[in-house]
Amino acid sequence: MKRFALGFIIGGIICSALTGFAVEYAVTANPFPIKVDGVSKSIEGYNINDSTYFKLRDIADAVGGFTVGFVNNTITISTSQAEQSEQPPEPANTDGAITIYEGQPRDNRLAKEGDIFVKADGTEIVLKKDEVTGVLGYGQGVAPDVGIMDEVGQGDQITTSPLTANGKLTTGKYGLNSVGKNVSDSQYQVNILTGEGHWDSEWAVISQYTSPKEAGTEVGEISADKNYFWDSMDWVLVSEHPEYADIFKVN
Questions:
Q1: What's CA 69's distance to the chain center, in Å?
Q2: Residues 139, 34: one domain?
Q3: Residue 58's pLDDT band (boundaries 50, 70, 90)?
Q4: Do residues 56 and 134 both lie within one domain?
Q5: Do 107 and 26 reside in the same domain of the chain?
Q6: Which domain holds residue 25?
């Protein structure tokens, strides 16, 4: 497979070198079918002087094993897993909606819009993104990612345990959350008053849109949506300070 990909990389480089002399050759669309590991692929190609050429990015997409970019006027080709993992691919079992049971462990993926969340009392809630903040599950009173299995350790010392409310995820296999942030090494914070949970980066987006505009009147005063409390100087997310539960004053 690597020899196959390399051959087309070299062909692409030669093609680039010939660009200035293209008028000397007849250029026609590639007339031959293309198969990768026996699977037919639709890849745009060109026949020049009895040789076939393809775009590097098209081959990268079809064959895999390397990525192509253009940075600072330089064509980049990378086979480095580190560079390819800036936005890690989601794990298997990502197609279609899944059913998530409150607090129960699972090992497939982060919650997505359209998934069904089943609360402890049997209530079923279809997860959706909030129209204003774009955060999955905002205003629905659920913590859909509590329970995903976290990996701790390395090599033979790896152990797994479910992510808990107000816990920290260390594995990077789950990818991006609803606001496009990688959840590796992230905090998952749950509002103890509403039971609603989000990643810290999602709570940050929520606070941009929903933080109360008027000052509070007494320490511990809770906002109308029960997401904030007044700490004498500012409105603070309840989810960030569950240890202050004894001062929360619910209206």
A1: 20
A2: no
A3: confident
A4: no
A5: no
A6: 2-84
Q: Does residue 185 lie within any of the structural domains?
A: yes
Taking only the tens place, the pLDDT of each residue in 177-190 is 999 999 999 999 99
At 199, which amino acid appears? Answer: W
Instruction: Express each pLDDT in 61-91 by its tens digit.
Output: 777 767 776 555 567 777 654 444 444 444 4
99: pLDDT strictly greater than 60: yes
The sign of the CA dihedral 135, 136, 141, 143 is: negative
Domain annotation covers residue 72: yes
| 3, containing H or E segment | helix 2-18
Dihedral sign of CA atoms 133, 189, 150, 162 in order: negative
| Per-residue tokens: 111 | 């919650």
Domain count, the chain: 2
The per-residue pLDDT for 82 is 43
Question: How far is it, in rounded angstroms, from Cα 204 to Cα 187?
Answer: 12
Beta bridge partners of 125: 117
Euclidean distance between CA atoms 124 and 120, whole angstroms: 10
Domain-embedded: residue 92: no
Rounded to whole angstroms, what are the CA distances from 33 to 52, 157, 175? Answer: 12, 48, 35
Residue type, 213: K
- Give the containing element (helix H, strand E) for 204: helix 200-210
Determine the average pLDDT of the residues in 234-246: 88
Residue 67 lies in a domain: yes
